Amino acid sequence: LPPHGVVERPMPSIGQVVLISSQGQEEEEEEWVHGEVVGFSGDLFSVKLADGIIRKAVGKEVAYNTAHKVRLPVGTRCVALYREKDQMEMAVYKSAVVAEPPKVLNKNRYMVFFDDGYPAYVYHKDMRVVVQSSPSVWEDVAPSSREFIRQYLQQYPERPMVRLSIGQSVKTECDSKWWMTKVVEMDASLVLLMFDKDKRTEWLYRGSTRLGPLFSEMEQRKARMVEGDQVVVRGRRVHGKKTGPVIEYRREVETDNVQTEVKKSSATPGRAVAKKSTASRKADSTSTSTTNWETEGTVYQVPRLAKERGTFSPHTCSPKCVTSAQYEEDDHRGCNPLLIPLLVGWDRQITKHSNGGRRRVFYLAPCGRRLSSPEDVHKYINLTGLMLEMDSFNFDWWLHVLNEFKP
Which candidate, 76, 110, 113, places its Cα nearest to that of 94? Predict the structure, then answer.
């Protein structure tokens, strides 16, 4: 790795080989190609491509052709080698943002977020800095990933992530639906998941809200904000059961923000002072959320008729179990997804254990079988052919599915 220092961005000179962003392609197909600077006028560069075509490009569309001689801080706009798992030899350069500095835990690699949302670890030699970038670097990112990058960089170095282990099951969002996945491989802040439905695999950042446990935690924090009971997190905190996926709050302590520190020290010499990692930041209170939440209104409970059930008799579940309680989309169009199971014959029960007062949620199926986890629901759906999706079931005890808010 190169030493720490200021990332300098000199203007490319005529005759210099650079990387230039491709045009006229879909976001997923975007890549950077080599070219030679043949002229410039104001903020526009004239770059000659390999096929002889001369392209006009601004500094945000041009990157250096060699790796920088200093380490890149988090938030640097760059291009990095993008490798498909089945085409490792056909790597191309794609737009990205540095999200994690190189360190021992990640084998001295940078974690980057590509503009298409794909996270990856990349070595310094495979990264190129973009000549110009906006002060708020997320403004240069593709629209599909812009909001996630903004939230990540404004929250950094605080990084809530899901703690997982190989073989563990976790609910994961894909195409606006929740699916059961299994952890196949871990790589520092990334996790490789296999979807039970089609056996395809995907790398995800462990701080992505596509992971069910983190999504539930964020929704719970929003609820506390509405109730005026926002809790300030200090240091490291862990939520949930010890045996399942839990949320851990981490704070980067690497000196990855050296660029800013070097500038400050060169202007005002003095003794460097390190802040405690447990110290609260005033900026957090102003940038925690910019969303305007409805706070005035009434919460009412949706009326429903509970279904009477006989005594449960042991049996092997099959499509017969849901014959009288099958989901019909047309009958429940526009309905709260979490309420649908209760409307078609299910029951949702919350229990409180005497030892410690822990609460648990159970779903009572139409046939009387009691399901205690997303894994149980997933298995039941496969056995019975139930038309309901996994995201219609929620096992967070604090969520009241019958309650609706009217502003």
Answer: 113
For 199, phi and psi rounded to 5 degrees?
65, 15
- 191, burial (CB in 10 Å: exposed 0-12, middle 13-18, buried 19+): buried
> Is the whole model's pTM more than 0.85, yes or no?
no
Alpha carbon 139 to chain centroid, angstroms? 18
Assess contact for 226 and 295: CB atoms under 8 A. Answer: yes
Q: Which residues of 129-160 are buried (b: 16+ CB within 10 A; e: fewer)?
A: bbbebeeebbebbeeebeebbbebbeebbebb
DSSP state of 273: -
Q: Give the tens place of pLDDT for each residue, 85-108.
A: 655 567 889 999 999 999 988 999
Tokens of 330: 């047309």
Alpha helices in 92-234 (DSSP H): 143-155, 212-226
394: how many CB neighbours lie within 10 A of its CB? 21
Upper half-sphere CA count for residue 286 (Cβ side, 13 Å): 3
Query: What's the chain's length in residues?
Result: 407
